[in-house]
Known about the structure:
It is built from 25 helices and 19 strands. The chain is an alpha/beta fold. The N and C termini lie far apart (108 Å).
Amino acid sequence: MRQQIVGISNKPSKRMIKEKCNKKSIRSQLMAYVRTELTHSTTHALPYIVKKDASTVERIFWSASVAAGCAMMVVLLTPLYTRFKQSPTVMSVELDYFNWRMSFPALTLCPRNKLDPDAYDAMIREYALITDVELRAILMTIAETTLENLDKINLYNKRLIATLKPEDYATIAARLLPPLDNASVVDSLGRPARAVVAMTELGACHVLYSNQARADDPERWRDPASDYEYVKSSTDLTIHDAAFYTTVHNYADDYDIYVHGPDDVVLGSARAVPHAGGSLALGVRLHSVRLAPALRAAAPAARGCRCVVLGSARAVPHAGGSLALGVRLHSVRLAPALRAAAPAARGCRLLHEPISPRYQTYSYSLCMLECRVRTIARLCGCVPHFYKPLKNETICTLTELRCVNHYRMEIATLSSSPVTLRRQQQTSGFHPAAACGCLTACETDVYLIDQQDLEPTGKTELRVGIVAFPKVRVLRETIFDFYDIILYTTISKKQTLPSHPKQNLNKMENPQETKGPPPTAEELKAKGNEAVKKEQYIEAVLHYTQAIKLDPNNYVLYSNRSFAFLKLDQHYLSLQDANETVRLQPQWAKGYFRRAEVEAASGLLDEAIISYTRALQLDPHNPKLLEQIRNMTDTQKKKYRDSQNIIWISTCIGLIIGIVVVILDYTLTENPTLTHPLAMVSFSLALSALGWAGGKGATLMDSWSAGKSLIPPEDLGMNGASAAEETVIPEKKSKYSRAQARHRYKQGKL
Length: 750
């Protein structure tokens, strides 16, 4: 049989040829489309790149031109984008206080004796049926344990401690807490207030008017079905509710009162106001911070804050009597436009932007509490029972609390010692507590105890009220958004902070030059500081200037030189250095404080308040800043009253002079000029109007003089050159025809 040998042909099939043609067709169509678009493009140089008869050198030249233009565009837009990411917000002031709604402060009541005798005996009988071990001392230890007294509790052996589960510690402490009847808490309208048992770093406490307390209820921790949902339980007030107060009757013989924001929690080491008998009344003053509407939808990293009401907790120990506390409030709010910005842009976080699944809201105190919990978990491998646990966290037994007590100071101060860092350097993910990165809250209410009156009586009574509502509120607003990057290609001088003046300050030499190695910037800074202490401010300026030449990016040097210039009444130079300090370090509160001092000294009180407020935002717990803002506000009010008094006094003086002139004219002259009564009255009113005009003019001159010390001084080194340039008369050249011009050119004439 004849065999047929079938070979494999290398000839492509019709299908392969068709697919290859289709691919070439698609590629050619795409290239033709791109070439057509570039040819008809209005962008210069693009049509020359795809021109068919263009040489290779021409294509390379135009391509390089396009690349250089793109690079220049990136260079010009980078400063705009950097400003958009770092400092797009500004702090403004609101004055429409009639439309504001402020939250009444939350109250945390922590009794010194956390054992209710009836509940204690009932729990002893309950556990007596389960185990035969005597648990009286252990139950007392669980109820009294806080972050502050870990060094004072008795830590028993593991056999006794093992009889109780660590998961039950928080519930036991809450059940042993003395009860607070709702009828014992009544507001000024006669309405009872509901108290919530919450676990804090100070143990089990009762919390009133809090939106956060339900999340710290131990009974809810054990019930998986009772997921915490944010419910507003605080009371909102207006300026018309100034008489609102809350009274707590016969709570305990000795307890601490903590005043804080409704969305905040109490941290350990908070200051307490004691109450040991009598009736106690608290008055509150409010200071607010608000977020502009444009920033509310922004991410927390862009605006640098989270939206929450933050209160600085302060405890008031109460041990009997009638105690009255007056609280004042400082408020900051966020403009609606800023809610859409990122936290890094607005410099704060919103209420609904939590950083941990432990809580569904955010506040600065919650962030610090979360940082403490993570630090304890890294160092000790467990979490104390007075913190809300997560599903993957282990609760510490009483024996394991020895580890927490060992690191108690580092946990409370959120600072890691060198020994701890060396010991934990092999631990994965360990970092110093200072790296928590807690942003401030975008909307902040800071409650400060302003009045404290104790009246000894036979009953224990607490009364809390707001002393004064704020009439000035700080508002975070956007001043530079993404549209500015699109609309502008360069940063104008009006949009940026003034740079350092070109007054040849950096060219000034140190007159005290000595042989040997040149001094360092730190040595010159130390010499400048010594000169400031001796009130030798000119010498201090020279030292600081020489130090700036060596270290031009040291913002502390500019701040110190700004202070020296301020003492020399050189307000313009002082303001330039203060602005340079803020530009080099926008997150340093002292830079804004230094700028506010210069603005206040030059009479720009409104700008000074804004700078002080910005410094307060960066350092919210600095009482000196609050005092300066209060002083500036009082100074503004006094200045306004003085101007009004000057106007009225001038008017009265003019009226009195007019009346005296009319009387003298009528009595001392034989033929009085003013004989008609209407003429006499008109003359007196005319002089009073002149007095009013004089007083008004004096007040206007005073207001116009504010800020004149910030006018740049004349540069004497350039005046002569400028005058010479201005007096140069351009040479007049005769016009010639083309033929005449060629003839003059041949003759060597121009």
